Amino acid sequence: MNNSIINIVYCTDSNYFEHVGVSITSIILNNKHHNIHFHVFLYDVSEEEKNKLQEISSSITLYSIPIDELNKYPDIQNDKIKHINRSMYIRLSVPRLLPDYVDKFIYLDGDILCFGDISSILNVNIDSVVCAVTTDSLDADNMLQNKKRLNLASEKYFNSGFLYINTENWKKFDTENKANQILLSPQNYNLSYPDQDALNIVLQNQVTYIDVKWNYLFTWMNDQEKESFFHNKQTLPYFVHFTGARKIWYKEHTGIAQNIYCFYKHFTPWSNSSLKSYKSKMRVNDYRIYAKSYLKDKNLINCIKYYSLYILHKLKFK
Questions:
Q1: Other residues' Cβ atoms within 10 Å of the Cβ of residue 270
Q2: CA–CA separation, 92 vs 108, rounded Å?
């Protein structure tokens, strides 16, 4: 095994496929002198789209997931995470499905962009744990709520969008089956973020926490911070994770983060495809957030329009 290879895994369907391409491109452009291999597990993706992804680099291997691997999982009913779909469950089976030579790998969600040299991940020791993780919140109250909700032993709760996994230890600990037991009997648990919650329950004593620079959540910042955050190259994280439903790749969500996304997208085979609208995916709370944003911009007409839509939708779904 060549220890200088960094293996990175994504799991996706056609909805996030293009964004995985942009994420991979951001890693390549920031790590030109490193040996990185990408493993993309996918389902419901056309041959044309697969070919586009492989145009990006010869270091990308695609794996088609049999639909049976996914059919055992329930559809996502929770409005809070309606933007997430069943492809998130694939990550549980990745250590079983990867080639044997991959002894360690970084798992990444498709809504993550890279901003620096990631070779120092090879210095993170995960020999005696299942994986290295990063915290899901910088707020102690949030962490306490998760502890109570899931009956965890400590107030530590990680975000599963970045995992640095020891393949053998994951399999030895029977992580996939243990998580599936929870996911397939959700009535016994108070799961808000199904696979993330299940992994936190199963792995609570089997992880090591590392710097949040490996998975810095965009939702930790307010609007002002989101604009100034990217200006200082010295303090930028390795990975920024664009959490939440209102993704930077929707045309309504303008700002410096969207400009950066479009910059990386420019170097992909999707460079000519235009940004899509978020309107058809709006959730009740989004109307209120849009109204607040328009108020801040002193756009009173749109503020009133979106607040009225928020009230209407709230009454409708009561």
A1: 19
A2: 13
Q: Which amino acid is at 155?
A: E
Q: 13: which DSSP letter? A: -
Looking from the CA of 68 toward its CB, the CA atoms found within 13 Å total 0
Q: How far apart are alpha carbons 171 and 206 in whole angstroms?
A: 12
Q: What is the arithmetic mean of pLDDT over 239-265?
A: 92
For 5-80, where are the E strands, in sequence order?
5-12, 35-42, 60-64
Same domain, 14 and 127: yes
The CATH number assigned to the domain holding 155 equals: 3.90.550.10
Report the C-alpha dihedral over residues 219, 223, 224, 230, rounded to 10 degrees.
Answer: 50
Cα distances from 120 to residues 6, 7, 8, 43, in angstroms, run 10, 13, 14, 32
Please, which contacts does 268-271 make with residues 24 or more away whose CB atoms are closer than 8 Å? 268/18, 268/21, 268/22, 268/25, 268/52, 268/56, 269/21, 269/52, 269/53, 269/55, 269/56, 270/18, 270/21, 270/22, 270/52
The two tokens of residue 309 are 């839509």
Residue 71 has pLDDT above 80, yes or no: no
Shortest CA distance to 122 belongs to which of 91, 182, 164?
A: 164
Looking at the structure of the chain, the number of domains it has is 2
Structural domain includes residue 270 = no
pLDDT, average across residues 260-267:
97
